[in-house]
Structure to design on (783 residues):
């Protein structure tokens, strides 16, 4: 590869002339209520706990709304409402009819796409271009896809008859609030189950607005219930004896606690937990496009992605060239107002998450890794972290092992394909991986050896409702998406 | 260096989603006008047509003298003298296609004569075509030697090397041809003759800009870029400028290093400028069609 002394001294000017003017998305069409009750049995009910908490915009720290905190009695009411709806309406309804309801939700999501995108960005901090082009369209696509399965469940489990499980407790994370709600609700409802959905406490608004869609779509009361709250609410939900199926996406730590609590109860369980994915770049890869894949792998959604390509394994012979390109590319990432249509990197979801990122980054510096950051100016209000990567990283460093869940990449090198595979698999996680090479045979050879639920080749972070998603090892079990995603919500006869 | 088609096209499309409004839009459009090589390359080109186009090149909008002149006019070799006289006293350069444009199917001696004639008639810039037949047959040395010979013949005239990307078809080929042309002495690399479809596209331009970037980092030398053909609207032009800005930075946002080969683009730019100024679209008949 070309290595020249001038390589490091040339610095392009990405600001200078022709700067883009602010292009904020309008929020005038949005109606956020000042306070949100719980959506139980088709009605908005005030919490028996009498407690409310605030949800803020992490980009401005302004309070957006006050949201009910469901206590144990509220959870119990929601589970009972769901159970009644299951017996009275949903399990009896022909699949064809259930499908119609789900198609209705998919279409309504498309019609109100802008409202949901803006709300998602305000409540969670992600750039509007992502909520607009990824979160909302994919959420609608999931409802469309599983709506199609509702009357074809005889073909879901080959050779066996399938029936629904019953009441599902579904707890979702704050990184893709609406999309995770769709991933959970669409297959559950298509299969004839009913749900109590609990969104994360920092991002409850799009799930609550989704509940409004279920109301407008005239769903039978209690088929979908949305209860808000923090860890205690989630714990009350997943341990409720009438909940027959628990689906959780979130941290490995909480996932382990849920699995312990579910042991011996006969509850069905699927967990989608953390990750520390290796993105492997071979010397024969299309390097400029690999850089785009690395960027998309780790800075998409500020790195708040369980399948983020947070470890870059690069063949030693192209390390310097690739790192040079990467250092340049992160300087073109535009960090700032998430509502601006030209923003590439938004706000960190919460203060707590920001502290965690900072702590892990400090550990990387202390352990001797070399930190490169984009050098962008951070806004004074809100929670922000610049796109960053570490070089000179040893496999033993914390930043190479622990999930940072932020815009921070650890770059390591390898010399041979076997070493790449060994390093990639040398983790407690196993959710995803990436392989970059121009050689097709190498893609198949390597990806078969990777212990990861999803392997992307010459691309990264591509999602589709027809494609199963899920992990190995401490990244969880069970698959979401595709025909595989139905198995978690069906009982085989 | 290999190129992945899917990821390249995705990156190019993503850069097309930048939201450019008001002052940013106006500045971008004015920049695009100043980067145009106003082009006519037809069998029916006549001295009269050339003189009219040159007037347009110097003063694209007679009603708004703040609108900059275009960078150059681009004509066939036999019309260089006429263009040169029509443009005397202006900043507008004369570019001439040469080397048996557009097919390049002539012996090297004729191509050299073609170039020499254009240069001696006063051409400031030569737009040559590569021998795509030789390139696709794997005879890279022949392609290289021809470019080097033409470069030598150019003397002080700037050399733009047309790859005719529509005939090379793959981005891997485009990348290889870009590296080859740069190594052989191109001052600019250019996508297309305008006679073959597809002509310039945003991803092919991005691919060539990446070759230019790697050369810049390796040697410190700045090579220019010219997408040509099929760029008709200011919206397209702004997409190209975003790609340039976010790949190479501000250094390339100048007619010295970036050009558009186009004929109808200027009028669409003028129409958009007028719309930004007055708030409404005007009839296309308000803009001169030379």
């Amino acid at each position: 590869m070309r290595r020249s002394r001038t390589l490091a001294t040339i610095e392009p000017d990405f600001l200078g002339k022709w700067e883009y003017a602010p292009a904020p998305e309008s929020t005038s069409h949005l109606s956020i209520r000042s306070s949100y009750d719980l959506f139980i049995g088709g009605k908005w009910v005030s919490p028996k706990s009498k407690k409310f908490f605030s949800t803020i915009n992490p980009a401005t720290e302004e309070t957006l709304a006050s949201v009910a905190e469901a206590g144990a009695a509220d959870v119990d009411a929601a589970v009972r409402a769901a159970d009644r709806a299951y017996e009275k309406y949903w399990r009896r309804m022909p699949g064809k009819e259930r499908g119609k309801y789900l198609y209705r939700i998919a279409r309504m999501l498309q019609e109100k796409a802008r409202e949901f995108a803006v709300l998602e960005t305000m409540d969670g901090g992600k750039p509007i271009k992502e909520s607009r082009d990824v979160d909302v369209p994919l959420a609608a696509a999931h409802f469309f896809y599983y709506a199609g399965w509702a009357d074809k469940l005889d073909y879901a489990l080959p050779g066996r008859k399938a029936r629904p499980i019953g009441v599902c407790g579904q707890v979702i994370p704050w990184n893709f609030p609406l999309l995770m709600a769709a991933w959970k609700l669409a297959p559950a409802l298509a299969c004839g189950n009913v749900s109590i959905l609990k969104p994360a406490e920092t991002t409850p608004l799009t799930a609550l607005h989704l509940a409004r869609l279920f109301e407008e779509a005239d769903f039978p009361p209690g088929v979908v219930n949305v209860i808000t709250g923090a860890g205690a609410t989630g714990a009350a939900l997943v341990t409720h004896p009438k909940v027959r199926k628990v689906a959780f996406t979130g941290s490995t730590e909480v996932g382990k606690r849920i699995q312990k609590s579910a042991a011996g109860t006969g509850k069905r369980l699927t967990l989608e937990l953390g990750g520390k994915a290796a993105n492997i770049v071979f010397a024969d890869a299309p390097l400029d496009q690999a850089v785009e894949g690395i960027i998309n792998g780790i800075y998409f959604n500020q790195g708040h992605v369980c399948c983020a390509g947070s470890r870059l394994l690069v063949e030693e012979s192209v390390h310097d060239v690739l790192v040079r390109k990467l250092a340049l590319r992160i300087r073109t990432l535009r960090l700032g107002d998430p509502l601006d249509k030209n923003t590439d990197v938004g706000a960190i979801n919460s203060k707590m998450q920001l502290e965690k990122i900072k702590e892990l980054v400090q550990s990387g510096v202390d352990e001797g890794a070399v930190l490169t950051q984009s050098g962008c100016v951070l806004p004074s209000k809100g929670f922000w972290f610049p796109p960053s990567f570490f070089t000179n990283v040893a496999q033993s460093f914390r930043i190479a092992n622990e999930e940072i869940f932020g815009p921070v990449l650890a770059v390591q090198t390898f010399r041979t394909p076997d070493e790449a595979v060994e390093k990639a698999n040398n983790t407690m996680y196993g959710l995803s991986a990436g392989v970059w090479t121009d050689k097709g045979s190498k893609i198949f050879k390597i990806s078969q050896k990777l212990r990861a639920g999803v392997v992307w080749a010459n691309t990264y972070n591509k999602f589709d409702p027809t494609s199963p998603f899920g992990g190995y090892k401490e990244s969880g079990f069970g698959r979401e998406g595709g025909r595989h995603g139905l198995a978690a919500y069906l009982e085989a006869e | 260096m290999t190129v992945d088609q899917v990821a390249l096209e995705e990156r190019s499309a993503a850069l097309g989603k930048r939201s450019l409004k008001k002052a940013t839009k106006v500045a971008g459009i004015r920049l695009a006008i100043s980067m145009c090589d106003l082009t006519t390359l037809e069998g029916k080109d006549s001295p009269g047509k050339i003189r009219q186009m040159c007037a347009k090149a110097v003063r694209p909008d007679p009603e708004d003298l703040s609108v900059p002149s275009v960078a150059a006019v681009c004509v066939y070799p036999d019309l260089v003298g006429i263009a040169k006289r029509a443009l005397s006293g202006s900043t507008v350069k004369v570019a001439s296609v040469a080397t048996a444009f557009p097919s390049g199917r002539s012996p090297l001696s004729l191509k050299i004569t073609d170039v020499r004639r254009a240069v001696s008639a006063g051409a400031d810039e030569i737009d040559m075509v590569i021998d795509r037949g030789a390139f696709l047959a794997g005879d890279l040395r022949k392609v290289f030697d021809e470019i080097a010979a033409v470069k030598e013949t150019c003397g002080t005239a700037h050399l733009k090397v047309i790859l005719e990307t529509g005939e090379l078809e793959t981005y891997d080929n485009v990348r290889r041809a870009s590296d080859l042309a740069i190594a052989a002495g191109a001052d600019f690399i250019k996508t297309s003759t305008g006679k073959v479809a597809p002509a310039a596209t945003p991803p092919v331009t991005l691919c060539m800009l990446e070759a230019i970037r790697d050369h810049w980092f390796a040697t410190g030398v700045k090579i220019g870029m010219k997408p040509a053909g099929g760029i008709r609207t200011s919206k397209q032009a702004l997409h190209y400028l975003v790609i340039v800005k976010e790949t190479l930075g501000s250094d390339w946002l100048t007619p010295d290093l970036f050009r558009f080969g186009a004929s109808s683009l200027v009028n669409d730019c003028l129409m958009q400028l007028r719309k930004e100024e007055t708030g409404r679209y005007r009839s296309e008949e308000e803009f001169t069609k030379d």
